[in-house]
Design brief:
The chain is of the alpha+beta class. 46% of the residues lie in helices and 12% in strands. Helix 11 packs across helix 12. InterPro entries: Cro/C1-type_HTH, Lambda_DNA-bd_dom_sf, MLTR_LBD.
Length: 272
């Protein structure tokens, strides 16, 4: 398909499916020759010219700006999925693409609990820990005992005394985390909390500052970690990261034992 022609057809179909009465538009005595809204009405709602709407719907090579796409999405009462589709067709990025999740979506929080006995937790793009289950607290740390400002996986790995020395392969874990944060920083340029987190880490950790300057980029979806637990000994785990379609800013992190010895150690740890 041609993206320009699809953009034109998509705008037309969404305009034609709307009921003027549902939008509070005044009724007109004359019979409407076309279903839905008129181009003039869409133009008024979106704050653009009628000629601009005509040219868009005729597929005449226009590439609307992000602001215009947002205005059209509001005028046409698009659903979140339709809005994202319109932005993709226009090859633009939503202004609120950097708006992060700060609390766990309730269905995902329940899923984290239901994943027991697998250690699991929910994080956002900047590694803020939003939800966790009992097994994860046994393996790593009881995050509920920490103030919310410290419930960040990168901050804990760098500055918390228990977590700092927990990973046998700490350098690789931190480097991969930094590479993820750099990708997140580019994807969420208006996230001040993420910028502040990076600045704090660079100020207080020389290794972080040095590795950040290398500009490695990586989004971690699957990995391997070795935990040196003070009570259960060495536990090797495979990690899997899943991104829910409904809440794409939230990431479900699940650990599984990498071998039989690690599984036995994890079982003993969680049984206490």
């Amino acid at each position: 398909m041609n993206a320009t022609q699809e953009l034109a057809a998509f705008l037309r179909t969404r305009r034609e499916r709307l009921d003027p009465g549902d939008l509070g538009l005044p009724s007109r005595r004359q019979t409407r020759r076309t279903p839905g809204l008129r181009r003039e009405e869409v133009a008024e709602l979106a704050g653009v010219s009628v000629d601009y709407i005509v040219r868009l719907e005729q597929g005449r090579g226009l590439r609307p700006s992000a602001d215009v796409v947002e205005a059209l999405a509001r005028a046409l009462r698009l659903t979140p999925v339709e809005r994202a589709y319109l932005f993709n067709l226009a090859q633009q990025r939503p202004r609120d693409a950097g708006k992060p999740a700060t609390v766990a979506a309730p269905p995902l929080a329940r899923l984290v609990a239901d994943l027991s006995p697998l250690p699991a937790m929910l994080v956002n793009h900047r590694y803020d820990i939003l939800a966790w289950n009992r097994e994860m607290t046994r393996l790593l740390l009881d995050f509920g005992t920490l103030p919310p400002s410290q419930r960040n996986a990168m901050w804990l790995c760098l500055r918390h005394p228990e977590i700092r020395d927990l990973y046998a392969d700490r350098e690789r874990v931190v480097r991969e985390g930094i590479a993820h944060l750099r990708a997140a920083w580019a994807a969420y340029p208006e996230d001040r909390a993420l910028t502040d987190l990076i600045a704090e880490c660079m100020t207080h950790d020389a290794e972080f500052a040095r590795w950040w300057a290398e500009r490695d980029i990586k989004v971690n979806g699957r990995g391997h970690k070795v935990v040196r637990h003070p009570d259960a000994g060495v536990i090797a785990v495979q990690s899997e990261v899943l991104m829910p379609l409904q809440d794409p800013d939230q990431r479900l992190l699940i650990f599984r034992a990498a071998d039989e010895e690690s599984q036995s150690a994890l079982d003993r740890l969680c049984a206490r």
